[in-house]
């Protein structure tokens, strides 16, 4: 049973015997608290220790260069300065016949075993002679790497007759440039269109037969477009675009969120209308940018080819297909959002009335506007660490040499002979431990984010509750700087309860994510059930998972309020909050829901603006060419969108938690005083208790 909160919130009898009616209160929300859910606080501390250990594993073994650049035949990462390959970022396969063999349908020879080296640019055939690309200088070839680069990787003229003969057998150390190539995501994509001039010179010199077949093109294209390669490039894009994340994922949403709070404080009547209109403009703008980058509007579509190239040569890439899909999804969301906006227009006045109460609170407890900067700074530091660790974890596989039985013989300049031993290529091998470390890191990032947001919400709830139970007046009964008093209570008594609440949300979301991943795998293996019953069960299960997730988040938010007010443990606070809401659902439901809708649209406005600015920054020359080119704006924009939403959640939580705390306090106040709230601010009484207002709200 839920008991009265009179002794909980500090309505102690005054010296004249009157309880809780103003001057006799000694303090607000002050009673015999004690630490709650300590076990989960210890668990959270242990989790942080594990996060640090897990991240150190990534920092020690990871190399973010592996996400973008390939491995040469020695197992070195192209572009790695420690292997003297700092400027040599492009992977090039020397032997076209090996590439052709790897492209055959049932071939056991894999492209990773074909001999590849790192170059500064992709070779092209000569128009009047035969160009060569030679192996790294070593042994008797006494050239510095810089001189080798200056000579366009060609020292064929300096070879002995023996080495020239092995080169004509496609055994090295020099190989002919027969096929043109272009830089596709830092890999030289061979074009299966041999140069007639180069082929004629090669044949005149007595070179072995070189096969001209589309399999050469497809073999490399298949490697570049593999799912793992695309995922690595997406992760690398996030690392390259760190200035964009800093500006569009951090500073822009911070500025916009503060502006929104100030406008709520001083211009509350017009903010719901401004929010709805701005949201529709922004979602249309972001959708149009997806159309542009997908190539459906204009001529600024992303291209997988880096640098200058033949304009008639086009390369398909998964990144382009993903942008097409994103554009379709955004179009659907845009249409639904526009229709939903029309549907809520008539209800906006209802949202305005409840936002006025929050604006009143912000005006009285002005520290609430500044407070979210504290969790914002903490989250900013955490995300910088987390993203850096994620880049290293995703690249922390082990470089292993393949175990192949294929013919990969080549001339070894150091041993001065044709070697068929240890000539297999290298691959980046991810063990199950690496996969587990990545999943743990993702879960840890979500849990930590939920924890910081929950702490912020609880502090705000405690501050607003102090305001409510002082009759909406800035009186001596409110502790000096109520925000910091609320922070003190949180840190001293309730961190364990917050850790438990955020863990439950993270756990449920993780289960949902795993089930969704399994569903997609099963869908690829076996199509969706054809019967109407199977489809109904399938879609119903998806809807149930989403409803469970939404319900738990809603219950948690109200539990944080009761934790701030009562100091109870998480489950007891959840029970109290749920009983209050159920007993007053008809009274507060419509007002609360519409207020949440406007706040949700406001968060989307901030995050959409962040995404829009990210598109604009990524459209500059820095990110469209050379070393810093990103494969697609999809992931950096998505990360900016998410970061913008998280920042907006911190700041909009001031309004959101103010409304929820005031309403829950009102419900408790009404229950304790036979339906007539004694401590409610006048503005709230006008909003919820006036008979004419209630009739209008329920229409």
Automatic annotation (TrEMBL):
Keyword Plastid applies: no
GO cellular component: plasma membrane
Membrane protein topology class: Multi-pass membrane protein
One Gene Ontology term of the molecular function aspect: transmembrane transporter activity
Protein name as it appears in the record: Choline transporter-like protein
Pfam family, one: Choline_transpo
InterPro entries attached to this UniProt entry: Choline_transptr-like
Reported function: Choline transporter.
Family membership noted in the UniProt record: Belongs to the CTL (choline transporter-like) family.
Domain of life from the UniProt record: Eukaryota
Species, as recorded: Forsythia ovata
Transmembrane segments: 38-59, 241-264, 271-292, 323-345, 365-387, 451-470, 597-618, 630-655
Keywords of this entry: Glycoprotein, Membrane, Transmembrane, Transmembrane helix
Location within or outside the cell: Cell membrane; Membrane
Keyword Glycoprotein included in the entry's annotation: yes
């Amino acid at each position: 049973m839920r008991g009265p909160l009179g002794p909980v919130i500090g309505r102690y009898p005054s010296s004249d015997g009157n309880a809780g009616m103003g001057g006799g209160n000694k303090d607000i929300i002050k009673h015999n608290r004690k630490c709650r859910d300590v076990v989960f606080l210890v668990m959270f501390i242990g989790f942080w220790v594990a996060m640090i250990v897990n991240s150190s594993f990534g920092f020690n073994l990871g190399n973010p260069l592996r996400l973008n650049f390939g491995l040469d035949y020695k197992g070195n990462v192209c572009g790695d300065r420690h292997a003297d390959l700092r400027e040599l970022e492009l992977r090039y396969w020397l032997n076209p016949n090996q590439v052709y063999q790897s492209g055959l349908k049932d071939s056991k020879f894999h492209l990773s075993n074909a001999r590849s080296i790192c170059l500064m640019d992709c070779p092209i055939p000569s128009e009047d002679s035969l160009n060569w690309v030679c192996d790294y200088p070593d042994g008797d070839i006494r050239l510095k790497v810089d001189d080798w680069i200056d000579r366009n990787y060609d020292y064929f003229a300096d070879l002995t007759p023996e080495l020239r003969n092995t080169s004509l057998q496609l055994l090295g150390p020099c190989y002919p440039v027969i096929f043109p190539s272009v830089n596709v995501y830092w890999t030289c994509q061979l074009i299966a269109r041999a140069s007639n001039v180069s082929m004629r010179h090669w044949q005149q010199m007595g070179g072995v037969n070189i096969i001209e077949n589309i399999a050469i093109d497809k073999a490399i294209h298949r490697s570049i477009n593999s799912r793992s390669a695309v995922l690595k490039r997406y992760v690398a894009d996030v690392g390259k675009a760190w200035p964009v994340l800093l500006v569009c994922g951090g500073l822009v949403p911070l500025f916009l969120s503060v502006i929104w709070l100030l406008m709520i404080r001083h211009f509350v009547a017009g903010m719901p209308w401004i929010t709805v209109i701005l949201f529709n403009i922004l979602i249309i703008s972001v959708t149009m940018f997806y159309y542009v980058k997908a190539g459906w509007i204009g001529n600024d579509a992303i291209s997988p080819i880096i640098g200058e190239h033949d304009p008639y040569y086009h390369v398909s890439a998964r990144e382009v297909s993903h942008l097409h899909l994103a554009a379709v999804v955004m179009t659907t969301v845009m249409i639904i959002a526009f229709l939903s906006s029309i549907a809520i227009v008539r209800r906006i006045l209802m949202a305005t009335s409840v936002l006025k109460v929050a604006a009143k609170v912000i005006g009285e407890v002005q520290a609430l506007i500044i407070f979210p900067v504290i969790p914002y700074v903490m989250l900013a530091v955490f995300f910088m660490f987390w993203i850096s660790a994620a880049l290293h974890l995703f690249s922390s596989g082990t470089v292993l040499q393949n175990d192949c039985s294929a013919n990969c013989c080549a001339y070894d300049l150091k041993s001065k002979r044709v070697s068929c031993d240890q000539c297999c290529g290298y691959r980046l091998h991810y063990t199950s431990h690496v996969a587990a470390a990545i999943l743990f890191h993702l879960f840890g990032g979500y849990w930590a984010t939920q924890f910081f947001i929950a702490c912020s919400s609880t502090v705000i709830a405690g501050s607003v509750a102090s305001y409510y139970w002082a009759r909406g007046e800035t009186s001596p009964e409110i502790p000096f700087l109520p925000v910091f008093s609320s922070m003190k209570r949180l840190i001293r008594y309730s961190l364990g309860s917050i850790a438990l609440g955020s863990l439950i949300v993270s756990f449920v979301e993780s289960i949902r994510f795993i089930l969704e991943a399994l569903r997609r795998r099963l869908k690829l293996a076996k199509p969706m059930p054809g019967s109407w019953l199977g489809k109904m069960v399938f879609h119903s299960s998806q809807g149930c998972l989403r409803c469970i997730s939404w319900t738990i988040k809603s219950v948690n938010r109200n539990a944080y309020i009761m934790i701030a007010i009562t100091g109870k443990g998480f489950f007891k606070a959840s029970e109290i909050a749920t009983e209050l809401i159920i007993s007053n659902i008809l009274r507060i439901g419509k007002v609360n829901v519409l207020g949440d809708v406007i706040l949700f649209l406001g968060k989307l406005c901030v995050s959409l603006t962040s995404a829009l600015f990210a598109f604009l920054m990524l459209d500059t020359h820095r990110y469209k060419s050379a070393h810093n080119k990103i494969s697609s704006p999809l992931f950096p924009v998505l990360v900016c969108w998410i970061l913008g939403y998280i920042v907006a959640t911190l700041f909009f939580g001031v309004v959101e938690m103010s409304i929820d705390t005031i309403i829950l306090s009102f419900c408790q106040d009404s229950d304790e005083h036979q339906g007539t709230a004694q401590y409610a601010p006048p503005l709230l009484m006008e909003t919820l208790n006036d008979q004419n207002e209630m009739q209008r709200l329920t229409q």
